[in-house]
């Protein structure tokens, strides 16, 4: 009899917990975008700071975005400056925004140029150095925050990959263009709206988008936040409730979760170019909602 009571008690207590767990795992998808405004900024409006590394060297940077779930820094490396050998406890993406840099990969120095990227797994040692006369600008994307907690740690004895063997170097020219219909052949000309997915894994998605004159990225919203950096061209982007504001080279936006965003190329001759980063992945699991719909 006692055993029966014990079984019944377990069943009665377990069912509500299971139902609660099921409700949490099937979160309702909104039918309309959230009204929280898209944050619009420009690199010129961000203060330059200096980061001192463990070996007392330092580098200037601009902290473009610093949220709980995403942090993005733009480092400005002058001739002879470097980000020394270091590792992070989280995965990161690195994108050469302007100029050229040398990096350690598979125990040798490799030159990176504008548009080249790296995916660097957690606890993998890497470094970047500038041997040219021009200032090199390099973006660091982290799928977590805050930047103050993301230490550029000195390589230690327990780090297995001290030679950058796990670093993935990715070049835009080696990747195919894509559109809503799928991937294009590798050397095919891009459609008026096209993008390249450069990094795509469980922790992040990073890529570039090209929007030809007279075209746009269909209005949409999704659960993950992201940063979109306008690397060239000019246009306008949706902020909130039908209001659009100007974007130019080095503008960038942060759409909060489920906020509608929509960017349009307003230049008559030049494409509008974007660098985008999601602090989650893979891309196939990011649900684009309300694509092309007008809500205001």
The helix fraction, in percent, is: under 10%
Structural class: mainly beta
**Proportion in β-strands:** 35-45%
Name the CATH class of the largest domain: Mainly Beta
- Biggest sheet statistics: 7 strands, antiparallel
Q: Give the helices and strands as they follow along the chain.
A: HEEEEEEEEEEEEEEEEEEEEEE
Number of domains: 2
| Whole-angstrom Rg | 22 Å
CATH homologous superfamily of the largest domain, by name?
A: Jelly Rolls
Q: In terms of per-residue confidence, which ranges show pLDDT below 50 for 5 or more consecutive residues? A: 4-20
Strand order in the sheet with the most strands = 2-3-4-11-6-9-12
Q: How many strands appear in the DSSP assignment?
A: 22
Tell me, rounded to a whole number, the average pLDDT.
91
- CATH A-level architecture of the largest domain: Sandwich
**Shape estimate:** globular
Compose a concise summary of this entry.
This protein has 296 residues and is mainly β.
